[in-house]
Amino acid sequence: MLTLPSLTEADASAGGKAFGLARVAAAGAPVPPGFVLPAAAFVAAVGPVDDSLPLEARGAALAHLASAAETADAPELAAAIVARARALGPRVIVRSSLALEDRAAGAAPGVGASVVVPAAEVWAAVRAVWASALTPLVAAYAHARPGAPVAPPTAIVQRFEPGFRATIYTRPPGHPDGADAWIACGPGAPTVVARDGAAWREALDLASIAEAAIGAPCGADVELVWAFAASAWVVVQARPLIHPPPPRRRAPAPPLYAAALAADGRPWRRDVTHNPAPLSVAQAELCARVEAAAIAPFHLRVVAHHLYWAPRADAPPPPPITDAAALAADLADDEAAVAAALTGPTDGLAAAVDRYLAAYRVLAGRLGPRIAAGKAAATAALTAAGLTPAQILARVPRPSAIGARLAAAARGEIAPAALAVELADVASAWDVAAPTLAETPARLREAIARAALRPGTPPPAGPGLTDLTTGEVAAAVDLARVAFDAGERDDLWYWRAQAVVRRALLGVAAERGLAPDDVWWLPWSELADDALTPDVARGRAAAARAAAERAAAWDLPLAVGVAPSPPRWHGAGVGGRAVGPAYHTDGAVAVPPGAIAVARAITPALVLALDGAAALIGEHGTPLDHGPAMARELGIPCVVGCDGAFDAIAPGQWLAVDGDRGEIRPYTSSSSSSS
After folding, report:
1. Helix or strand or coil: residue 574?
2. Across-strand partners of 164?
3. Which of 89, 260, 337, 474 has its CA at 20 to 30 Å from residue 593's CA atom?
């Protein structure tokens, strides 16, 4: 029988949370009693975890283990856990204690799970916590942080202490030598107190003990509970405080890249609203074929793995927009044409690319311009009627948006299996190299579960609906609803076209014996070369990935031949205020609860990672784009159009976001009284 050590006996093998609490208890601070479920318990009940797989394969393997964990049958182990839990008290809390949690190099906030249950039901809770540690998002978090392994999950079971919760930062974030402490008792701005002052003295003393016990001279993040039963503070978590690093400084790009763009005299803009990160070689190949076919009202050019676009001089004018019914009919015809282009078998990569180009011709040449013209006409009319962007958002639902579909599934209005089919081709990036939801189904399950916890969308503010139901304004509202919802479906069509090529490339990889992660980084002419071996492909793909990583660190111009916008910390905003630590996101990993999500581009799929975020900041976009619409769906503030904010804001830096005024500013001890 496995040994289930007491929490006070935990060592580093028990994971960050357990080891931290054991050291705090050894220093004399009160910690709720409990015991550890070591990695061996998971292996005995479920099986080993292979941490050596490449990221895509690892995510699928972890999802399989998560499913096995949810149904694990280990009667002897379960009985032992239940018996130990009953000895703790009537209710217990099962908490993840992963190897990648609560480390000085990264805390992994919100990555694991905690479940409170009656002691008799602890075995089901243990399996749920195990499963939460085996998601593709956990794999992505570990992959992005060297030294953060996805080992067999460990967990702790403790007596649950009902009470009043407080989180203490023993030093101000960003100021490891600061004389203040920050205390948060819920959402909103923390209270700033002197570390040596009389306020919160008992709690601060315990936090200081915890800081010393875990060896965190630069500060600790300590969670305490004022236990109602004991009328005393107890420590329930202690981890090193992760201070924000200095703002990232990008190296200047070699001049030859800007010179290459400037040579033809076109007004090139970097496509940061869709592709802020470097493109894979495969996506660059697709862009080159779109440009060669001349099927879009814009030119495309990939420079140093980044996509630039410029308007075509011979592009047709925007289509005339008459009314909502006519627009809806035209859009339906266009969508049917896209569906026809993508329907049917594809025999090889060339056939898949032909289908992609046929769909792109309609999407970029007809459907997209119609949607843009409809949005512009409706927005102009509603703005003239006195509505602000926030009021327009409130009156123009987008039922086809991913966030709305997740909410519908959470309410039981659509079966999760049906939604999985509907969103199967959605990816986290506009790049054929990005895995789809069909390949990472656990991401969709997690997003639906988080959507079930989402608060309701706030009611519209401003003019009442009765003011908008007659005349030209009513017609503009109808037009806006058709156009903006079609914009959400338009994204799904692009993903479906992208997925056709992705599946073909995966087929090439399988046929040639290439690693799936390498096929995205090889020129297509080389894929057709019979002399290409898996070893040669691996080396060439590694070189291409390294080139993309170098390009990601360059300060490539946002525009060539066009005056760029200056960096700024203000933009267009909607929806109230929030305070919290910045979290840079590309949608691959869920944003920690209470964090301010900061994104270069706000793509529709980003909503999969945003539940729990306190606010959303985007470098680019307008008040009626995806970002503000997502934020309203989630009930959080949003500010977009903040050029340069992603690099200027350090991960973990505390921010105050004012969506109503479109402002962002650093939150510091001196600003606490006015937030």
Report:
1. strand
2. 226
3. 89
